[in-house]
DNA sequence: CGAACCATTGACGGGGCTCAAATTGTGTGG
DNA sequence: CCACACAATTTGAGCCCCGTCAATGGTTCG
């Protein structure tokens, strides 16, 4: 039902019956300092996608980047057996399509999980413009680097955290994102299935479901189908565990602040 | 010992007592089409690092990209407990430092696993130059996008493959890389410890060790400490398994070629 | 209103982590 | 060059987390 999703598109204006955004609005969306560019007339077109529609598919010729203005999506890899591997859940302010630059074809698939409004960024246009506007060029590099850092963090999580910790982090991250977007950080609806969450976190859907139920029972959250209430953010944030432990480096003087106080004793002890 | 490591540096020339490379040589190193740029005099300095030395550390101000000309390294994340998470094992032709563009500080640490020779690419110089040379700019975007795609594949692996499959893939990838570099693809030395491999693959060092021993026993490889002999590449390549299975998408008509013939029945059945 | 799809929960087993010890390799100082 | 300390690797035993299989009920949508 998407009841909590706003229909208003702050960024964007009508023109020729469609929505368009100027560069400043795109920068705002990406959480980047606005670029003082003379060409105020530079506009980017929006496109709408309905739930279930594909924004781009694997192998499709690349020519566009996309910025999410509203709505929720998933990006997935498809392996040789047809299995989906969820890579991310892009939402407002996220950039999509960067993986297509290399090879000139998209290497992932983007699917709308709800009705979406996306800003189209023709890549050629962007680079051409960047050549004369240093700030734009820096923005491009910055955004791509940010994506890379994000993925590195993801690798770190998949490589080092337990199922409980992954789910907890997932919830905290979602909460933060919703908060950024002006929604409640304490109560929100998941736009994806347990299956998709599991794929994203490297877990099965049953483990995701069980972990959510466990969090619910000990009062960290409330769960009702796709409605999640965050009850104890701090507990969720500090919930860790190190299955591949003994992975400690021998340079203890490194942790910026061994300020990691006593951790929640994890669920098993309850 | 590094007995199999060549001391020669194909790319690079002496000048002022140091090694320098021009743009064409850098492109070759990165496996990119050579850029026909007029400034033949454009040279990039090399720097040498000894085993154990850090190329850059987390938080250090960013201003350089690095291309590996020879030697082996690891890039790592450090979590709040001081634990290392290995992100990659850069070797000849790999680019390092891209994660530093965003935030102007490196978000990972690069450590030399052997004596190394790196080409320094001052980022400012690169972008400035890219503004007047479209090809160079495209190269920059392309390389960054390639890194991103690589990390996406890594996420897919960590999220979907069993321990055996991860180790098998790791070996095949290494074999390919060594082959590319002109070494034997059938016999090579690991430059990293079991611990580092485990961190990279999201496993414990014991699991890595046991898996290698198991591969050895069934004749897929030979193992003697850090010397690996590849006996049956095809078996290693086709060795998969899908712990988070049932992850099959409901659109079976997708797999580009259900050409996935019968797989090796995995170790457990032997 | 029925047919998918989705979520929850239980039972069970095994893959991989933990703890432990023995062996071998590696680096450093005398 | 050798001896010693330490790091790396291997291997075993045990167990627990989480994947697998299965059944039920709820939700959605044509």
Report on this structure.
The structure is a homodimer of 270-residue chains. By secondary structure, the first copy, chain A, is of the alpha+beta class. Helices cover 33% and strands 22% of the residues of chain A. In chain A, the strands form three sheets. Chain A has a six-stranded antiparallel sheet. Chain A has a four-stranded antiparallel sheet with strand order 4-9-6-7. In chain A, α2 (123-132) packs across α3 and α5 crosses α6 (205-217). The structure holds a DNA duplex (30 and 30 nucleotides). Chains A, B: It holds the Pfam family cNMP_binding.
The gross shape of chain A turns out to be globular
Q: What is the CATH C-level name of the largest domain in chain A? A: Mainly Beta
> How many strands of chain A?
13
User: What string gives the helices and strands of chain A in order?
Assistant: EEHEEEEEEEEHHHEHHEEH
Summarize the largest interface: chains and residue counts.
A-B, 67 and 67 residues
Widest sheet: strand ordering of chain A:
1-2-3-10-5-8
CATH architecture label of the largest domain in chain A: Sandwich
- Protein structure class of chain A: alpha+beta
**Main sheet specs of chain A:** 6 strands, antiparallel
β-strand amount of chain A? 15-25%
**CATH topology tier name of the largest domain in chain A:** Jelly Rolls
CATH superfamily of the largest domain in chain A: Jelly Rolls
The number of domains of chain A: 2
Helix content of chain A: 25-40%
Task: Estimate the mean pLDDT confidence of chain A.
Answer: 86
Number of helices of chain A: 7
Low-confidence stretches of chain A: 1-9, 250-270
Distance between the termini of chain A: 36 Å
């Amino acid at each position: 039902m998407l009841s909590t999703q706003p229909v208003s598109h702050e960024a964007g204006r009508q023109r020729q019956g469609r929505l368009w955004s100027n560069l400043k609005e795109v920068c705002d969306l990406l959480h980047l300092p606005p670029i003082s560019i003379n060409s105020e007339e530079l506009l980017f077109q929006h496109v709408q996608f309905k739930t279930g529609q594909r924004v781009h598919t694997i192998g499709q010729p690349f020519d566009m980047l996309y910025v999410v203005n509203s709505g929720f999506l998933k990006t997935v890899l498809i392996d040789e057996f047809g299995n989906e591997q969820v890579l991310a859940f892009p939402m407002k302010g996220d950039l999509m399509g960067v993986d297509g630059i290399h090879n000139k074809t998209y290497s992932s698939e983007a699917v709308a999980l709800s009705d979406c409004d996306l800003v189209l960024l023709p890549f050629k246009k962007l680079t051409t413009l960047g050549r004369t506007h240093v700030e734009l060029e820096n923005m491009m590099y910055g955004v791509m680097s940010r994506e890379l850092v994000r993925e590195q963090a993801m690798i770190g999580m998949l490589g080092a955290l337990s199922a409980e910790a992954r789910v907890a982090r997932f919830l905290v991250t979602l909460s933060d994102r919703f908060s950024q977007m002006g929604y409640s950080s304490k109560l929100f609806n998941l736009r994806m299935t347990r299956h998709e969450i599991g794929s994203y976190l490297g877990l099965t859907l049953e483990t995701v479901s069980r972990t959510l139920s466990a969090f619910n029972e000990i009062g960290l959250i409330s769960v009702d189908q796709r409605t999640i209430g965050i009850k104890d953010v701090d507990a969720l944030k500090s919930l860790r565990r190190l299955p591949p432990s003994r992975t400690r480096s021998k340079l203890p003087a490194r942790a910026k602040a061994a300020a990691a106080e006593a951790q929640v004793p994890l669920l098993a002890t309850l």
